[in-house]
Amino acid sequence: MNPLLSKLQPYPFEKLRGLFAGVQPDSRYSPISLGIGEPKHPTPAFIQQALADNLGGLASYPSTTGSDALRAAIAAWLERRYDLPAIDPATQVLPVNGSREALFALAQALIDPRPDALVMCPNPFYQIYEGAAYLAGATPYFVNSDPARNFAPDYKSVPEEIWPRVQLLYLCSPGNPTGAVLTLEDWKELFALSDRYGFVIAADECYSEIYFNAVAPLGGLEAAHRLGRTGYPRLIAFSSLSKRSNVPGMRSGFVAGDAEILKKFLLYRTYHGSAMSPAIQAASVAAWNDEQHVEDNRAKYISKFNQVTPLLQEVLDVALPDAGFYLWAKVPKLSDTEFAKRLHAEYNVTVLPGSYLARDAHGANPGQSRIRMALVAEVDECLEAARRIVEFTQKLS
């Protein structure tokens, strides 16, 4: 077996199952899970219909590059969403089977596994970044989030001698679990570092369409364009239909950006066997071409967060995030793991301990004493969960 597999840590939900082992929740309460970031709103009917109408495509092998129609739909969406100049569908866009598999695969294609190779990750973070780094033969370097900057990573804290070893930098904006969105100044700083040291930036933007005010989150390609970076050098943006369109089971997303990197990534993917089903491609075209369902979906999240956040603020240190569908709350009295365990036992509500989403780095675990709550269910269920959390927390006082 590949010895690098021994470096992988259990996934957060495996740790959660271990934490809850032997716990019997109070049967007076129906179970409510805020633990997993899985969209629960119904999949729009027109996407389901597009999938059903194109099942004949199952009789054909799909190409790794995807159909012309899909790449054109993605390119057009990028141009509309981020006010970009023309994106070349043939060279600057590549369909992928969800952003997760592409985030992992990019590291395998890109990393030169020298002994000193580093992959920079935010902390807390999406665990795929760490696993991708280890299995590509590199070591993750964690940059702790800064509460003073709404939990955006503090790149200024990185010692100068670290940067020459970095080959790939993962970032998540809007962030998981914190909801932080990078500013144009943040991007300017990262682009300057990328120019100086030559690392590639992998911008995970799968939460970009869930936000709470009139200003949509800034994207990496958008920032590059505003800063005059023609061709998006050493920048690959990742997006997905899962959260935007409530289709996590379709596993449909894309990568876009630097054409030279995508050309080599396509070569890797041709061998990797990662072509998207023709039926999924057709349904994806329909989804990328429609914005009304996205606006309707966003309105549901706005309603939920506007009702749930004030309730939880009565007992927890929590604020409306920049974007995304998570609340990142500091808990009182107990550790994050004990809080989650007792809440599950006494009120049958599941939340994810923040320490499971972070690593001990530079003398701290930035997830410690925090919990992540995914407000993915319908509003009534989220409100019921919030009421139980309030009652539980008040008992701790």
Automatic annotation (TrEMBL):
What residue range is the signal peptide? none
Q: Look up the record and name the cofactor or cofactors this protein needs.
A: pyridoxal 5'-phosphate
Record-listed E.C. numbers: 2.6.1.17
Q: Which GO terms describe its molecular function?
A: pyridoxal phosphate binding; succinyldiaminopimelate transaminase activity
Q: Extract the InterPro entries matched here.
A: Aminotransferase_I/II_large, DapC_beta/gammaproteobac, LL-DAP_aminotransferase, PyrdxlP-dep_Trfase, PyrdxlP-dep_Trfase_major, PyrdxlP-dep_Trfase_small
KW Transferase (keyword) present: yes
Q: Which domain of life is it from?
A: Bacteria
Question: Which BP terms does GO give this entry?
Answer: lysine biosynthetic process via diaminopimelate
Keywords from the UniProt entry: Aminotransferase, Transferase
Cross-referenced Pfam families, in alphabetical order?
Aminotran_1_2
Domain Aminotransferase class I/classII large as annotated: residue spans = 32-384
Tell me which PANTHER family the record gives: AMINO ACID AMINOTRANSFERASE, L-GLUTAMINE--4-(METHYLSULFANYL)-2-OXOBUTANOATE AMINOTRANSFERASE
Known NCBIfam families for this protein?
DapC_gpp
Q: What is this protein called?
A: Succinyldiaminopimelate transaminase
